């Protein structure tokens, strides 16, 4: 088993929360893990990415090799396609469709969606809207995790266990919000692919 | 989402090893140890705690900051009474560490690569004094300059100082090398340098911990003059250092961190240093077909390298950062065999390595996927909405740039360096910690008017105070603006030594009290700030303006 994942977004969007849950489950499952994060200057509203590698065999590189990513999970649509050089030709692009516009020359949303749809395997999900509908806008990253869950090769119920373990001390309400979010993300992705 | 991330990021995951892992890692299976997920930086900190250190000394700098941060939030370190406060700068950190080593205790000093420049006087001379208690200086290099102004390679300092260097290739090695390095340091009474790079510093992986060793008792150096570098003593100490080089070489030949793995295809041999080893091996999941020397400790193991040179047709040197090893092998004269690396173009001369670069160097296909579509635009970092620097820069634009034109503002290292980007485009320099003050002085001496320095509070107490003293002595016609956001913001909000002290520091250094102006940078105070800047520009001498308002990131974290 091996999954090379690129997590993408804008500094401050909290992409590492997704990595934390996947990492927790991977370690519980006895898998090897390497997770390269971005700290420092780029965190100030710039483009950020994290490389997450999980495998049943020992892992050498902290970085995902170009053209070898099984998954790109992006919480921002323009950031999702920034990392296409890393995506394997059979890999999956899972992205939120909610733009984060802090630059003047941000591309048109239609144009952006067209580029995303050119990727053979993709899921474009309005994660923020779904999270808001569930009444917990802050859990949109967990909606993204749900949308990606089918491609992680980790048991879905283990991801839910991970959310319970990580958010447990924040109380039942937060745990339940996140469980609803991951399920909503999973269900949206399943439906998206049927259409 | 980011604020609850900080708490999640701090959790550490502990699990008992599974059967699969035990099969893969017999050494770990035997020990039945717990595995924790740690950043490379955190592995160093935990390794130091478990190696029995009594102190951490550091100044924050990406990618080294998390070493001290981990130590500061470690309950274990707290209970053990380990010193773990930030220092004013890297030089004071290394000197304090040297003092703790003098007292017989184990200690580490941590910094980013350019911080080692600041600490170089102390560090290089510590090779001559030697250590008493174990002393390791950790320097985190930043190839590709993710958060730095250059990509200098700290291993040069090891060479230069004749001090052994450790370079881990994994979080586990980073952890293990702390105990190993401390024993080494005490065996030869020599400080060690540990060099890491960004990817290891900021990558998380499983680490198996060992039993913690107790701290040393205080014991003075046996030779009371060991640390007295008068020329007559230095000459003797230097000879000792030179004589010990052969022992360092023996240690390298027999180090658990240097290894020679043979391979059938001897058309090329690989010398892979630190994480360069990972990028090479990533392309050979079934094992390397070529002989590989894995380097984790310097001086270089000469015998291993000579054996490779005798058996292989050529050598590829894989090193993250600058071609330190390659230059050593190559020299000026032609080597007896072909040496490939960053100098002959087999690998790029600058920037980080990665698995694909090694793939291409080894003659395999480039697997890079689709190009990034052209509609994707760069998204450079920006000052946060509500940042106090924005208000100061707006006022500075109106008071200086709009009146005198561009070219009058010397700046420094911190978030406020982002003032070089639009929409501000207000600063004209960023060189090293403190250079704003002294460059403004030199420019004023040359006749530039007005000459303005802009520096952060923490950067000012790091290296700006002495420059201000220079200006005061000559009553230089310049304005120093100390952007006081009451923290070390760029690295994530560490405590600033300047907090609550700036006014007194400036008047204490001799700036006239009526020309030390304090103001709160807020949009509603814009006109006041513009007026103050204009007044102090008009004053023909040293003025200091201190716009004070806390960083909005640190306020957010407190909520």
Detailed description of the structure:
Chain A is 41% helix and 22% strand. Chain A has 195 residues and is α/β, with parallel strands linked by helices. Chain A has one domain: Pyruvate-ferredoxin Oxidoreductase, domain 3. A six-stranded mixed sheet of chain A has the order 2-3-1-4-5-6, sandwiched between helices. Residues 1-32 of chain B have low confidence and may be disordered. In chain B, helix 7 (90-102) runs parallel beside helix 9, helix 18 packs across helix 22 (526-538) and helix 19 (435-446) runs parallel beside helix 20. Chain B has 559 residues and is of the alpha/beta class. In chain B, helix 22 (526-538) links the parallel strand 19 and strand 20 (542-547). Chain B has three domains: 10-253, Rossmann fold (3-Layer(aba) Sandwich), CATH 3.40.50.970; 259-361, Rossmann fold (3-Layer(aba) Sandwich); 388-558, Thiamin diphosphate (ThDP)-binding fold, Pyr/PP domains (Rossmann fold), CATH 3.40.50. Chain B starts with a helix and ends with a helix. In chain B, the strands form four sheets. In chain B, strands 4-3-5-6-8-7-13 form a seven-stranded mixed sheet, with helices on both faces. Helix content of chain B is 42%, strand content 16%. Chain B has 23 helices and 20 strands. Chains A and B meet through helix 1, strand 2, helix 2, strand 5 and helix 3 of A and helix 1, helix 2, strand 2, strand 9 and helix 14 of B.
| Rg estimate of chain B, integer Å | 26 Å
Number of strands of chain A: 6
Question: What value does the average pLDDT of chain A take?
Answer: 94
In CATH, the topology of the largest domain in chain B is named Rossmann fold
The side-by-side strand order for the widest beta sheet of chain B comes to: 4-3-5-6-8-7-13
Report the C-alpha radius of gyration of chain A, rounded.
16 Å
Name of the level-1 CATH class of the largest domain in chain B: Alpha Beta
Q: Could you tell me how far the N terminus lies from the C terminus of chain B, measured between alpha carbons in angstroms?
A: 13 Å
Helical fraction of chain B equals: 40-55%
Largest pleated sheet of chain B: 7 strands, mixed
> Assembly type of the shown chains?
heterodimer
Shape of chain B: globular
- Low-confidence stretches of chain B are 1-32
Number of helices of chain A: 7
- Fourth-level CATH superfamily of the largest domain in chain B: Thiamin diphosphate (ThDP)-binding fold, Pyr/PP domains
Helical/strand content category of chain A:
alpha/beta
Q: Summarize model confidence as the mean pLDDT of chain B.
A: 93
Element order, helices and strands of chain A?
EHEEEHEHEHHHH
Largest sheet of chain A: 6 strands, mixed
């Amino acid at each position: 088993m091996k999954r090379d994942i690129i997590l993408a977004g804008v500094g401050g969007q909290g992409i590492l929360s997704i990595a934390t849950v996947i990492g927790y489950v991977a370690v519980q499952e006895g898998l090897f893990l390497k997770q390269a994060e971005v700290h420092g200057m780029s965190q100030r509203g710039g483009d950020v990415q994290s490389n997450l590698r999980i495998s049943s065999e020992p892992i050498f590189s902290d970085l995902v090799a170009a053209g070898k990513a099984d998954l790109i999970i992006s919480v921002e649509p323009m950031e999702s396609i920034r990392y296409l050089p890393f995506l394997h030709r059979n890999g999956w692009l899972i992205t939120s469709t909610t733009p984060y516009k802090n630059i003047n020359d941000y591309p048109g949303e239609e144009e952006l969606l067209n580029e995303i749809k050119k990727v053979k395997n993709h899921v474009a999900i309005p994660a923020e809207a779904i999270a808001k509908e569930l009444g917990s806008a802050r859990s949109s990253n967990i909606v993204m995790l749900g949308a990606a869950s089918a491609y992680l090769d980790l048991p879905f119920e283990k991801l839910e266990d991970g959310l319970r373990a990580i958010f447990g001390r924040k109380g039942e309400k937060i745990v339940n919000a996140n469980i609803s979010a991951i399920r909503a993300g999973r269900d949206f992705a399943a439906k998206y692919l049927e259409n | 989402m980011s604020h609850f991330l900080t708490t999640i990021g701090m959790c550490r995951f502990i699990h008992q090893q599974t059967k699969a892992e035990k099969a893969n890692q017999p050494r770990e299976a035997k020990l039945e140890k717990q595995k924790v997920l740690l950043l490379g930086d955190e592995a160093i900190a935990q390794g130091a705690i478990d190696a029995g250190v009594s102190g951490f000394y550091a100044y924050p700098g990406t990618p080294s900051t998390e070493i001290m941060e981990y130590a500061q939030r470690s309950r274990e370190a707290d209970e053990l009474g380990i010193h773990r406060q930030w220092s004013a700068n890297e030089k004071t950190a290394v000197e304090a560490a040297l003092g703790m080593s003098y007292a017989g205790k184990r200690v580490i000093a941590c910094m980013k690569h350019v911080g080692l420049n600041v600490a170089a006087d102390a560090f290089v001379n510590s090779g001559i004094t030697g250590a008493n208690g174990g002393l390791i200086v950790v320097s985190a290099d930043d190839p590709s300059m993710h958060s730095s102004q250059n990509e200098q390679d700290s291993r040069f300092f090891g060479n230069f100082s004749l001090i052994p260097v450790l370079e881990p290739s994994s979080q586990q090695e980073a952890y293990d090398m702390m105990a190993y390095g401390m024993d080494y340091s005490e065996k030869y009474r020599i400080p060690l340098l540990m060099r890491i790079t960004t990817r290891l510093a900021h990558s998380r992986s499983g680490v198996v911990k060992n039993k913690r060793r107790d701290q040393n008792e205080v014991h003075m150096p046996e030779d009371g003059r060991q640390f007295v570098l008068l020329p007559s003593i230095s000459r003797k100490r230097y000879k000792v250092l030179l004589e010990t080089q052969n022992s360092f070489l023996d240690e390298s030949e027999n180090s658990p961190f240097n290894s020679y793995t043979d391979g059938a295809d001897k058309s090329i041999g690989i010398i892979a240093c630190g994480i360069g080893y990972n990028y090479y091996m990533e392309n050979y999941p079934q094992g390397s077909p070529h002989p590989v020397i894995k380097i984790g400790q310097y001086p270089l193991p000469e015998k291993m390298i000579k054996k490779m040179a005798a058996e292989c047709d050529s050598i590829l040197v894989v090193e993250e950062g600058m071609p330190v090893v390659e230059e050593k092998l190559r020299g000026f004269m032609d080597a007896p065999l072909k040496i490939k690396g960053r100098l002959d173009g087999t690998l790029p001369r600058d920037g980080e390595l990665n698995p694909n670069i090694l793939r291409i160097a080894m003659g395999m296909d480039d697997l890079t996927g689709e190009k990034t579509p052209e509609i994707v635009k760069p998204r450079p970092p920006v000052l946060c909405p509500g940042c106090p620097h924005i208000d100061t820069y707006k006022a500075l634009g109106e008071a200086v740039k709009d009146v005198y034109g561009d070219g009058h503002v010397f700046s420094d290292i911190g978030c406020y360096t982002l003032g070089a980007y639009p929409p501000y485009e207000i600063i004209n320099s960023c060189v090293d910690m403190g250079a704003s003050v002294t460059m403004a002085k030199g420019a004023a001496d040359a006749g530039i008017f007005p000459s303005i320095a802009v520096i952060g509070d923490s950067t000012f107490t790091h290296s700006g105070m002495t420059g201000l003293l220079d200006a005061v002595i000559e009553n230089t016609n310049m304005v120093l603006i100390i952007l006081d956001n009451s923290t070390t913001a760029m690295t994530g909000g560490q405590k600033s030594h300047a907090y609550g002290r700036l006014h007194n520091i400036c008047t204490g250094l001799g700036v006239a009290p009526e020309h030390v102006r304090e103001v709160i940078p807020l949009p509603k105070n814009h006109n006041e700030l513009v007026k103050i800047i204009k007044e102090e520009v008009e004053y023909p001498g040293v003025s200091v303006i201190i716009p004070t308002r806390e960083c909005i990131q640190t306020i957010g974290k407190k909520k």
